[in-house]
Amino acid sequence: MKKPPVSRGDIIRWEQQVRLRHMTTRKYLSIDEKHDIMLTDDNEDPKTVFRLHSVLSERDEIHFESYARIEHVLTGFWLHALKDEDYIRKQFRSLDETHDQSMRGLRWDSAQVRQVAASGESMYDDAFTIQHVEKQYVDDFNYVGGMVPFLLNLIKDRDEGIYLNAKKTHTTLTAMEELRKFLLHMGSPVKNRQKLMRNLRGGIGINVAQMIVELIRDKRKIVDRITHQQIDEFVGLLQVTQNYRFLDLLHVLCVCDDVAIPNNQSYIVQRWLHREHKGVYLTARGQDINRQPNILYISTTNGASWMALHEFVDETNPDYDKDQHDFLQHQLDLYKALCFPLCVFVCVCVCVCVHVDACIRIVCTCTGLFVDVGNNYSVLDHPNICFVYDYVGSKDEEKSQADFVVKELVAIFPVLRDWIAEFLQNNNNMVASEVGHNMLIEQVLRLLYHLVKFGYYQDWEDVQQLLPPMLSLLDGRKDFPFPKDKDKGYSKEAMKQVQQYQQQDRYDKGPETAAIVNAKYQALEVLDLLLTYQRNLRLQSFMGKFKMAETTSTARKSQNVLSPLIYDTYNPHDQSKRALKKQKSVVKELRDMFNVSAIFDVELLTRILLDLSQYKYNKLITKALNILNKVYSSKTNMFKLSEKAQASSVLLTQDSSRVHREVLKNMPLLRRLARAKLDAQQVKLMSDILDDLAEFCHLPMTPDEPHPMNQNILISNGILIILFDILVQEIDFKLLEQYAGMTDIFKKTLYLLRLLARENDAVQHHIFERLDILLEVRVVESDLAMALREVAGTGLTLKRNQAYVMKYIMQNYKKLAFVLDLAREEREKILTSPAKMSTLRYYISLLDLLAACAEGENMFIESLCQTILPMDDLLAMLNNPAIDNVLKKPFLRCLHHVYMKSNGSVVDMQTSEIPHDRWADMLTQWRVCCSELWDYLASLSIEMNRLTDSIREDPEKIGIHLKTAPEKSGSAHAPDFESSAYGTVLYILEGVFPFLETFYRDFYFPDQQQYGQEMDETDHLAKACVMFSEIVGPLLFKPNHMKNMVNCLSVVVPVSNMPNSNLEHIMERFASGITVEDTSSAIRRGNIEYYSSEVELNAKFRVFAKNCAVVFAGHNTVTAQLRLKSKRAYTIIGSDEELPLGEEFQSLVRCFIDTHDKKVDKRYGPAAKLLDQLAISMECKRMSEGARMEMDELNVKCFQVLRALVHNEERRLPEDWATRTTEPKITK
Prior knowledge:
This protein is mainly alpha-helical. Among the domains are: 16-89 and 111-132, Trefoil (Acidic Fibroblast Growth Factor, subunit A) (Trefoil), CATH 2.80.10.50; 136-206, no CATH class; 208-284 and 315-373; 657-766, Leucine-rich Repeat Variant (Alpha Horseshoe); 797-903; 923-966 and 976-1076; 1125-1227, no CATH class. The protein has 55 helices and 19 strands. The strands form eight sheets. A four-stranded antiparallel β-sheet has the order 1-4-5-8, with no helix packed on it. Helix 9 runs parallel beside helix 12. InterPro entries: MIR_dom_sf, MIR_motif, RIH_dom, Ryanodine_IP3_receptor.
């Protein structure tokens, strides 16, 4: 974007003249005399000048992320994005993209590109976003843009048969190496640079295996297009050349962005290892090949000759071959990729080619082949917050937690445990120059991580044995830049270098530091698991405390000190002397419990973690701060987990225990499969699990009735994290045959999410918080719409999420809203034909979703909806007698929320007296559709009278229906009158009554002389509403139905000619027959009775946890929290500014204060690391659901600590400090 004249730069303001330049072609956007969009090289052409207009009222200057409409200065036309015409780039126009599944049909950039035209009118939906591009991205673009011509010329010369001389060859190789380095940073591929290289490639295929590897690494859409024939070619090249680069090529086809590709894994093994052993290095123990026993040998000649492994990797050996050494290392990496994460068939095949030994790649392969496979399931991925009450405090408790841990390595675990302990003891510090050895340490720690994760370290003594050497290994203050001389140690000069390294240099980035950081990061992963282990121990102990308190609560003499805390009558805020004495006893009881289960030296661990946060590696900073937060939140989080448990922490009934066991059995496998590209067998397995879990979420034989207890058991076991991990997977819609299984998985996942959200506020809020993730789901848009509709019906109108949904719909209009672009006749066929039920359901769900988006009275959203939902279309459907009333409800909701609850001029006038001669000036569509609207109102009178007469004959039938949950739109095709009448009753109660209330309150103005027939229709309608309410009112159970009826009558009857006494009469009769809501069917009531004791027990547990948390945190006073004499409160409980209470939080705050320095900038200097973390989190885009939740929690804690640093200083001042700012004591 340039502001004329181009020789001078300045701030651009709204409505100033600018030119728009296309970065790829360097041409300027213009509009010619025929109003066609063009590109031109002439920057002096007046047709290239545009003007930006603000969509929303903003400041004069243009800011990034602003919404703008773009006007062409000469013609006065506006840039208009055609919502139903995607732009197709020239290179793709000749391709059948729907069916082309080859690399040729792949679009490197998946972003939607819209066809742009010039329009004489400014449209509602022509809002363009002005976004900022970082300078580094501009520099990257210019670099790649300059490299492309060089590569094009190289290919052109080759095609024309021009041979390279020595000089040009050297130049070419240098440029290619420079380009390879550009695609990598610190040895890792830079995805944005890869994407640039592909987008600007100009049709180039770089015939270098390594370059191909870097271009397709972690690119799922490319990997999915690699055929078995192409894999055959890669394997053939590998067998012929034995070049490790072809191993890397096969490697990136097995695991893509931490997602396994099982079909590729299995095929590569069959093609490479099963048929023949060409291109494979074999390993064997000496005793198996008549060589020295217990020595590992390697063969590069398919078994014809053997060499001891320690000689093979010895660089001083005369027969050492670096290429063969590299091949072995990359072969071991490929073995690990082939077995990632749970490909049992591959593991069995690969195990014949490798043996476990203590070298870096083999330790890594050992983890991939023998530990992270089979039936080894993680027992520490999720905190255990469900307890079978009968087992609590008994010997069966520990057994019940380990029922589903299958220890396949139990026979050799003692050997592994002792070897790891010895290895860590002998390597309790790190030497920067020994990069290979540090990489070995990383892999040993990774092996340890999996053993801890899978529950092999259950013995307390084993855990205690691990900690000292691992903490020593983590402590960077003990690291050295190079090893000391074995005889003389470090010289005086060397000691200076060591001190310089330990004090400063070890934090800087570099290849040597990277190896150390990776090892320390892996050690932190182990610590993270041990913190979970500690948390589970504490939860188990806390549940035991509760059971003791609950069972002794009725015994006066032997009552436990914690027993009073199980009742909501207990007051934890009481500060009387007697209460404080008892609270002190409670705190001692809880502190003793925490001390018994503590496994860390917190002071030492804090120093180590703060030191690790100083390294200039983002992942280490985040991990260190995350662990620090968990260390100083471990006690508080235990209480929070107990409080948040969704009424299912304590399982008392046999059914709850059975469901819990089934969930525990299925969760580990589901977690493993959640982020994998599944083969047919895995799809079947995962589908069965999802089906079983879905059955748990509703009452037996009644899918519409939620099962709250089972819902919450699933939630407590972390099902939401797994479901969102499944849904974040990318699916290429052009490869639907390949993704057929995943499509079914997505549908079942969304169905389970719907069942979990039904009448569950916690799940609904979680879905709202993750709505941006859900809106990225592809292929199963109709299922997604129905899932969002389940949540949208809760009455929550969050404007941010409504805007997200509308943005998503408009960006994908042709795919999501295709049904709205059909001719009216075709849409009417959908609504009247039983053969098009699936399209009908989608159509209705889409309208419900649009109505829910417009419900929040957002003018911008309403303008978009008015563009795609013309009023005459809505009224035509409402006036069509062939369309069932059940199906008319979403059309009426759209008419109501889009046109009649607008935040625009009509409602802003806040008047009900809107004369007819002003309608044309305010809403043109109202004038055009006025007669159709009154036709609709007249039909309502007839429909309500007919329905009232039918119900009067047997009101009990409708009464039974009104007590149960309504069916979805499928009831529309029911032939019997009973179902049809029930649907019409719901249509009137939930659609018609709210509509009439708004219309007659805000839009109706009686005019007897000119519009007398309207007053007559109003009288008929008021009479019909009263008669309907007299019959149906006493049958109602739902508060919302009662509210809609009362509000409607209160508005319609007074504006009619009916006497108000009729309204009073109906209200009296309505009140006499009213029944307190009992939404439970017989099955639901039976379910409530069955679980009543369990619900009561869980209510006690939540009260107990809440009271314990409050008592343990201390009173909300400056004295209790900061240990200062003051009468001031510490924080405002329940406000947005509330800070956590308790010693844990204050200890965390003190971690970021240098107490030895009195200068403010240096005293609070350590807190800068919190700002660094917040900046790092902004760069994290794609994360698993669990990682996202951890990042959110860490960021919140960073803000709280930063605020507490200021807040604590303010709390130290007198309460009236604001009026005493001139006093030295205050200013100091």
